[in-house]
Amino acid sequence: MPWPIYLALKQLFPTGRVSFFTLISVLGVGLGVALMLVSTSVMGGFGHQIKRMIIDTQGEVQVKARGLIDPAAGVEKVLAADPGIAAFAPYAQGVVMLEYGRRPAFPAVQGLDLERIAQVIPLQRYLTAGSLDDLDDDSVILSSLLASGLGVRPGDTVSIYTPLMLERMKNNEVLLPREVRVAGIFHIGHQQLDSSTVICPLRLMQDLYGLDRMVHGYNVRLQPGADADVVAARLNRALPAGVGALTWFEANADFQAVLAFERNMIFFLLTFIIVVAAFSITSSLLVTVVRKTREIGLLGAMGGRARDVALSFCVQGGFIGVAGTAAGLLFGYALLHWRNAIVGFIARMTMGEEAFVKFYQFSNLPAHTAAKDVFIIVVFSIVAATLAGLIPAWRAAKLKPVEALRSE
C-alpha cells in the first residue's frame, strides 16, 4: 500500500476506531446526500404521477385545430394510417353551468366517443361510483369534488345550461336547460380535474353546443415504445392546414416548466448542505495539519515529497465523501421506503389524516428515483468532499521540514 494512503487511513482511524472528526464529517455528507435523494425522488414522483394522469386523461398526443374539425375532412384517415398510433377518439369540450338543488357550478365538460374512448383513456379505472355501461346520451359522469360540492349522488338529475341558450335568446328563441342523470363519479387524484370536470357522451356535448357532427380534437394513444415527439412531428406534416398535433408535454408545457423549476430550485438549495459539510471536512483536516505539523515535517525530512503529503489529505477527503455518500444513500432509500408511514405519523400528530388528504389531495406520497439524479448526487458529493481536502493538502505541502520540526 502506498504510504500516502496508509497515512490517510491512520489519521482517519488513529486507534483502529473511527475518530470523532471523521464521524462528524461522514454524517454531514450523509445527511446532505439523503436529503437531496429524498427531495429529488419526491419531486420526481409528483412529476411522474402527473405525467401518468395527463396521459390517462388526454393520451400521449392530442390533435387540435383553431376551430372545429369535420371528421369527414380526412383527419381520421391520417391518424389511422400512422404506424405509431394504436388508437384515437374524438372529443368536444367547453364550459357549462350545472345546477342541482339551486346550487350552481361552472365546470368544464368533455364529450367523448364512448365506443372508442376505452382504447385511449382508461376512464373505468378512475370511477368510484357507477359504471361506464350506464352512461348514455341523457347522462353524465361528475368528478368527485364537484359531486361533493353539489351534494349529488349517482341516480340524481342535474340541469345543464350552455352558451347555446344565450345564442338562441338573441334570435328570440327559448332553449330549455338539459335535464340529465348522474351515471357515475370519478376521482383522478388531480385537484383541478377532480374539482370541476363533467364527462358526457360526444353526441350529448354536440347537442349542448350545437356542433352537429363537428369535434374539437382527437385524443391519441401510441403504440408501446413509440416516441410522442416523432409521431407528433409526422402528423403535423400529414394533417390538413389549420390542424396540428401536440404531445402531452407540449399541451401542458407551462405546468411542466413550473414543476421542473421547483424541482431544480430545491435541488440547488439542498446542494448547500453538501457545501457546508465540505467546509466542515476542510476545518477538521486543517486542525489535523496543525496537530500533525511535526510529523509532516519529519516525513519531509525523510524524503517524502510535498505532493505525496498533499495526496494523503485529498485521500482523506475522498474517503469521507465515499463513506458519507454510501451512508446517505442507505438512509435516503430507507426514508423513501418508509415515507408513507412518516407522512401518516406527521398527519396524525398535526391535523389528522382526513384533513391532510382533503387539503393536500394525497394520502400516499409519490416517489420516483431517476438513475441520472442518483448519479449527479453521488458525483457531486464525492467531488465536493475530495476538493474539501485541497486547502489542507496545500497547507501541508507548503510546510518546510525544518520549520515544521521546530513547531511545538
Structure description:
This protein has 408 residues and is an alpha+beta fold. The chain has 18 helices and twelve strands. Strands 1, 2, 3, 4, 5, 6, 7, 8, 9, 10, 11 and 12 form a twelve-stranded mixed beta sheet that branches. The mean pLDDT is 80.
Entry keywords:
about 400 residues; alpha+beta; 18 helices; 12 strands; about 20% strand
Describe the SSE topology.
Elements: H1 3-12, H2 20-58, E1 61-69, H3 75-81, E2 85-95, E3 97-100, E4 103-105, E5 108-112, H4 123-126, E6 127-130, E7 139-143, H5 144-150, E8 157-161, H6 163-170, E9 178-186, H7 191-195, E10 197-201, H8 202-209, E11 215-222, H9 228-238, E12 243-247, H10 248-251, H11 253-291, H12 293-301, H13 306-337, H14 339-349, H15 353-360, H16 371-388, H17 390-397, H18 401-406
Parallel strand pairs: 5-10, 7-9
Antiparallel strand pairs: 1-11, 1-12, 2-5, 2-11, 3-4, 3-8, 6-9, 7-10, 8-9
Subcellular location: Cell membrane
Organism: Oleiharenicola lentus
Main location: membrane
* Run of helices and strands: HHEHEEEEHEEHEHEHEHEHEHHHHHHHHH
Helix content: 55-70%
- Between the first and last Cα atoms, what is the distance in angstroms? 31 Å
The structural class is alpha+beta
Please give the count of helices: 18
What portion of the residues fall into strands of 2 or more residues?
A: 15-25%
The dominant shape is elongated
Q: Would you count the extended β strands for me?
A: 12
Mean of residue pLDDT values: 80
What's the structural domain tally?
2
Computed over alpha carbons, the radius of gyration is: 32 Å
The major beta sheet can be summarized as:
12 strands, mixed
Unreliable parts: none
Pfam families: FtsX, MacB_PCD
Subcellular location: Cell membrane
GO biological process, one term: lipoprotein localization to outer membrane
Family: Belongs to the ABC-4 integral membrane protein family. LolC/E subfamily.
